[in-house]
Amino acid sequence: MADIRLEDVGHSYDGGRTWAVRPMTWTWRSGRAYALLGPSGCGKTTLLNIMSGLITPTTGRVWFGEREVTSVPTAGRNIAQVFQFPVLYEEMSVYDNLAFPLRNRRYPKDEVDRRVRAVSRMLGLDAHLGRRSRRLDPGRQQIVSLGRGLVRSDVAAVLLDEPLTVVDPAIRWTLRSTLKEIHRDTGHTLVYVTHDQTEALTFADEVVVLKDGAIVQAGEPAELFLSPAHEFVGHFIGSPGMNTLPGEVADGLVRVGGQVVGRADEPLPAGPVRVGVRPEFARLGDGPGSPGLPAEVTAVDRMGAYDLVHVRAGGHPLVARAEAGSPYEPGAAEFVRFTGGRVFLFRDEVRCGQVVPLNGRAG
Amino acid sequence: MTVTEPVEDPAVTAAEEPDRRPEAKPKDNRAWLLVLPVVVCVTFTALIPLMTVVNYSVQDIFSPSDRIFVGLEWFRSVTRDPEVRGAFLRTLMFSAQVLLIEIPLGVAIAVAMPRRGWTVSAALVVVALPLLIPWNVVGTIWQIFARGDIGLGGWAINQVPGVDFNYTLDSTDAWITVLVMDVWHWTPLVALLAYAALRSIPEPYFQAAQIDGASAWATFRRIQLPRLRGVLTIAILLRFMDSFMIYTEPFVVTGGGPGNATSFLSVLLSKIAVGQFDLGPAGAFSLLYFLIVQIVSYVFFTVLTRSGR
């Protein structure tokens, strides 16, 4: 097992006019579980296919440890890949499906049998080995296609391309835990492509957020939530996503709709900014203070476990999270306090600073 | 290799094979009226003509006013007729050869055809071209093409030392000419059907095969061939029925000769029915012919669809 290193790797499907994956340098560290998160069409699948060798990148080099594999065909890379829908050899039994990659590589018969049985035990397929694979339910079919990747001895990484899309929501959770167990037991590097943040956050050691073919932020789930480095990360992670209010900076003061919110923590050139704050850090009912804005309640969504209070602050809509059974009613005048030192400033979508109270420190 | 028998998990089986029987709905017998147009149509296009033939087959007709009921006499005489038996075996042999050549060849062409780019259209046009030519024109083309003196094909074969190719005199040459003509004319149908099925296989199947290290043959055997089952069933049925009833082309090229080397069932039938105007034997012959096509097609269909389960 080795790190998978992408060195200045980029891919274009139209000869360089547009990039599906912009040239990037990135290392997938051995044995970690990664979630590759991003909207449809952001280059997730392309990036995956570059690693597995189904696509040769337009530029750059791919390394598996000390071995350069840029032009090594897929079969020589020992990558396991699971696709969006179960890809099975439908006429074959589950056993034969699992044995197929080994038989193709001319493993001895008893070795094939030993490995197939080990994998089937790990994946809970023992009872289904003799069945035709297409007679299984989609969830099990997806497990069989995963198993085909795991039977080989020297898997460099397991790549999963939105593997739970076709699976019934009820058993998604089970499958995800199976995946986590496999990761724990085998120690394979896992790269899990998804556009579902819950999946990504519960699954991964590290979440990599991709947008327009470029990595905008990578880090542990909490880091992405608490400290988004890019507006997109703020929107994409969290439910509901981060509020962003158009504002401006002048003389170190941050204003939204003419109202002073607070102070920028570092000197910024005067001009427009966007102020980002998560609903979790927008609090109502604490009275006026800094940083914060006067607001008028427009609607309240009672979500059961908590309430989402929609307000207009500085002339712009904003969502604040409050405890269940909160007393706010539409039309009430309130004040939104931004707490926890989690108000960020973005320029050109990239984070450029933080909003701190007018007097005193962040917090 | 021993594979453990699957232990049926009752919960799983129940989940996978849900009972899809819909709720019993109230019956309304007026629905039969909806079938009426089809019944009328089929009566005039199939049932009445067929009954006419049945009518002929049990009578000896001298003139419209002078006829005798002969029972199954014509059926007996037709099945004992050595000429009919010869034609039957010949036609069966021809169909078998047609299937054995055209099905694998068509699949091979489909696999070899490009999957993307401008060459797709080019390949499709070239492959489909023979299908656009009317049967009798195909016959005329080959009648000239295969001639040893002025036909390009026949002439080219005769350039090989020691070969004297002449389909009007040599029965093997005539047989080969008709067979090659049919392969040329109809393999494209098999190829196009197979190509359509192959195109419907999603790309990840091929990607998975690459990851699993499958050879080109294994990819064909395990991914492409299973997906061809449906269209090949149709192709085999169509090609069997068509080749078993082949008429126009051999009629134009060889006229059933030399001798009766290419005298297939249909050629013989039309000779009896139209040439000699023996309506009784022709009727019995037609019904038997019809029955054979039905039975063989049914057997093919059953075997091919069963094997997929």
The major β-sheet of chain B equals:
2 strands, antiparallel
Percentage beta strand of chain A: 35-45%
Main structural class of chain A: alpha+beta
Give the CATH H-level superfamily of the largest domain in chain A.
P-loop containing nucleotide triphosphate hydrolases
- Discrete helix count of chain A: 8
Radius of gyration of chain A: 25 Å
Number of domains of chain A: 2
Number of helices of chain B: 13
Protein name (chain A): ABC transporter ATP-binding protein
GO molecular function, one term (chain A): ATP hydrolysis activity
Domain ABC transporter (chain A): 4-237
Pfam family, one (chain A): ABC_tran
Label this structure with key terms.
heterodimer; A: 363 residues; alpha+beta; Rossmann fold; OB fold (Dihydrolipoamide Acetyltransferase, E2P); six-stranded mixed beta sheet; six-stranded antiparallel beta barrel; 21 strands; B: 309 residues; mainly alpha; MetI-like fold; 2 domains; two-stranded antiparallel ribbon; 2 strands
